[in-house]
Write a structure and sequence with these properties.
There is one protein chain. Helices cover 37% and strands 17% of the residues. The protein is α/β, with parallel strands linked by helices. Helix 8 packs across helix 10. 30% of the residues are buried.
């Protein structure tokens, strides 16, 4: 296993910042958010022990962008190479989900593809999972195993750097002079840290153990009254979909400028009342109950049927952002318990109908 060691991250980040725009975690008011890296600053770079509050999709799929111009086309501004530091395993899996959507052959988004090609991913281990995290329920991990260019693991006296792509290997090889020898006990310390983080998250999720696939749980619960109850607490702020790293719905609208029109592409949300409105004004999901159900069906059923993977990565951002204090883990747990109770009742009814001697 190819590994490198640094006591401070700044020498590596200065090199990266010479080649591309670099965004790093900035700690403020109890959470981490992205900030542009300034090589002139001398303070030590923060290591985010859990995922940032913002999803990485904002770099690949901007909140608002020009899709077309009429009557005369214009050249889009050039997309510069960029790097993002601090992405966790859940973020990397979310990017793979976006790849499925925006790089699909028939519907390939050229702007997304170009941003993806110019993106350099610097991931890092999760050292302290949040109470809202549930990546293990979604087959995730507390440390990345693929999908990164380089990964950073924090240990007591510094950082272990590991390449995960040809781009990452080339960067590290070309700058070998800035690295020191990997301490003899460093790999063991990193593995112990990972094991402890895994145990911490398993403890957080001890009440969420399902023996049934999530697709089956959600599909069987389509008629559940639980969605009526859940919708009562929803204020339709749409934060759950905006902050989600995999939600990718957008709508197009026209804007008139002085002497031309531009078609804009902007994030949309299936929680929004008019999201499903069609020509003529009809709306098959006027009721918030139906929109609440649709969101889960898309995450755990529809997307899985189409692409072979679930659309939820268990980052927990929707739990943190929800103004109505909804917890998707609790919803899945209640649906699971209802399904088990219904199956038990069916079994009892079946036994009662058996002929007796």
């Amino acid at each position: 296993m190819e590994t490198y060691f640094l006591s401070r991250l700044k020498p590596l980040f200065d090199v990266i910042a010479e080649q591309r725009e670099l965004y790093i975690p900035h700690h403020e008011e109890g959470h981490f958010s992205f900030a542009r890296y300034d090589p002139q600053q001398q303070q030590e770079i923060a290591f985010n022990e859990l995922r940032l509050c913002q999803p990485a999709k904002q770099f690949l799929f901007p909140l608002r962008e020009i899709a077309a111009v009429f009557p005369d086309p214009v050249e889009s501004p050039p997309i510069k190479p960029f790097a993002i530091y601090g992405l966790k395993d859940c973020d990397l899996r979310a990017i793979r989900i976006l790849d499925k959507v925006f790089q699909e052959e028939e519907f390939c988004d050229p702007a997304y593809v170009e941003r993806r090609e110019k993106m350099f991913i610097i991931s890092s281990d999760c050292c302290s999972p949040n109470e809202s995290c549930f990546c293990l329920m979604m087959d995730g991990s507390v440390y990345p195993e693929e999908g990164y260019d380089i990964n950073i693991s924090k240990i007591k006296d510094g950082y272990i750097i590991q390449p995960g792509s040809d781009k990452g290997r080339m960067l590290l090889k070309e700058n070998e002079a800035i690295f020191a020898d990997v301490p003899s006990a460093a790999i063991l310390e990193r593995d112990v840290n990972r094991t402890q983080a895994q145990a911490q998250l398993e403890n957080i999720l001890s009440d969420y153990q399902f023996e049934t696939p999530l697709k089956e749980i959600v599909s069987d619960g389509c008629e559940s009254e639980l969605f009526n109850e859940e919708s009562k607490g929803c204020v339709e702020c749409q934060a759950c979909t905006r902050i989600c790293p995999t939600c990718h719905c957008f709508y197009l609208y026209d804007e008139k400028q002085d002497d031309y029109y531009q078609k804009m592409k902007i994030w949309d949300s299936c929680v929004r009342l008019d999201y499903a409105t069609v020509a003529g004004g009809e709306n098959p999901r006027k009721m918030l109950t139906n929109r609440t159900l649709h969101r889960l069906l898309h995450k755990f059923v529809f997307f899985l049927d189409r692409y072979g993977i679930q659309m939820c990565v268990g980052c927990g951002r929707c739990i943190d952002a929800c103004a109505g204090e909804s917890n998707i883990r609790d919803v899945l747990k209640k649906l699971y318990e209802e399904s088990n109770a219904n199956n038990d009742q069916k079994l009892k009814n079946g036994k009662k109908s058996l002929p007796t001697d």
